[in-house]
Write a structure and sequence with these properties.
50% of the residues lie in helices and 11% in strands. By secondary structure, the protein is an alpha/beta fold. α5 packs parallel to α8 and α7 packs across α8. It comes from Scytalopus superciliaris.
């Protein structure tokens, strides 16, 4: 319902075939995102750093494909988008790399490859394994978390700033991004990322929450 309503409200589209939804998280509640993309008929690219979560969703049948190669992900995205094929593709990697690659494609070709975007990393718990920084691989980041949590925190906040910077560039060209109630925008703001709504008070963000703006 969230994906369908986002399409209705922001894309003015009842039919999401050929539309691209990019997000992250295939763990607990977030695991349903892959299934939702296919039910809604769009192309869903979902990033996840933990291979166990990807394999679990694939085994369930909720996730159609898995790849750890961004070139392959972009090629599959273009193919499914062109042919209006419903697809759920799990990218085994950090979502910041995926967002930055989409910015690179935009800069290189002028083509905006994503229509809808969100995030379901566990940003209510960002410094204890809920969000993994893009600067490190999954296992390396887990090791740092246990040996130097202060450094891990710093890297998470740097990663959040990069995360938002990429989203902002794509949103400026017409992608519609929303917050999934996971404290992503709040933690990004605390990290110093550019998420404040211009001309509004500091508790308002430039992107909407799914609760009030989409499900409401």
């Amino acid at each position: 319902l969230t994906v369908l309503n986002a399409g209705r409200r922001y894309l003015k589209a009842e039919d999401l075939s050929g539309k691209v939804f990019v997000t992250s998280g295939l763990g607990g509640m977030s695991g349903a995102q892959a299934k939702a993309a296919v039910i809604a008929g769009c192309v869903g690219i979902i990033a996840e750093v933990d291979e166990a979560a990807l394999l679990k969703r694939h085994k369930q049948g909720w996730l159609m494909e898995i790849s750890n190669n961004l070139d392959h992900c972009i090629a599959r995205l273009r193919e499914a988008r062109k042919n209006k094929i419903a697809l759920s593709l799990g990218y085994h990697g950090n979502v910041v790399d995926l967002w930055e690659r989409l910015v690179h494609e935009l800069d290189k070709t002028g083509e905006l490859l994503v229509d809808l975007g969100s995030d379901q990393t566990s940003c209510h718990n960002p410094f204890n394994g809920g969000y993994y920084p893009v600067q490190l691989g999954f296992e390396e980041a887990k090791q740092l978390l246990s040996t130097n949590p202060g450094k891990f925190r710093t890297l998470v906040q740097e990663s959040l700033k990069r995360h938002v910077a990429a989203i902002n560039k794509l949103a400026d060209k017409g992608m519609f991004f929303w917050d999934y109630g996971n404290a992503f925008l709040l933690e990004a703001q605390r990290a110093g990322a550019d998420v404040e709504k211009k001309g509004a008070n500091k508790t308002e963000f430039r992107y909407p929450s799914y609760v009030q703006h989409i499900m409401g």
